[in-house]
Amino acid sequence: MEYVAKPAVMVVLIVAVLALDDVDTSVRALIVLGFGFSLVGDVVLMLPAGRFEAGLGAFLAAHCFTIAALFDAGLQAAWVAAGALVVAVGAGGLAPPIVRGAAARARPLAFAVGAYITVLGVMAVSAVGVGHWAAAAAGLLFLVSDALLGWGRFVGPTPGGRVGVHVTYHLAQAGFATWLALG
Questions:
Q1: DSSP annotation string for 15-84
Q2: Mean pLDDT, to the nearest integer, of 98-125?
């Protein structure tokens, strides 16, 4: 079920975003590219011989496109500051154990995970920074989803396990589509 449902959600979101009228075409293109790289990451991570590093790279690219879309839409300094505070407090205690857990497996993996966490944080701050509730919720939900995923992979069991990761991930992606639709 997961092999079909997870990518299908992203395909539906891509089609929905492409069907939107009266949206900034450059912001929409960047969001679609982000969704596309997320879809690639989903598929790579689901494959039996999936490589975590390749999935991480796909999601890193997805976040870079999302950051570009958020910057293109315009950030507001007060909301960026609020986002930075929320992300620093919320993720500050979670990132070090996740990176240490990755380092216990392989030093280069710890570097990649640390870089990913940094870009994820920038994306979440930028999402709050646009000053729209749907974008803010999307960025923060993505942060929660990836924190659950990283903790589960490198530290120990998480509440809700894979279901918690999937629900927060899909709500985050739907949040970005909602932000674009509501503009």
A1: HHHHT-SSS-HHHHHHHHHHHHHHHHHHHHHHSTT--HHHHHHHHHHHHHHHHHHHHHH---HHHHHHHH
A2: 94
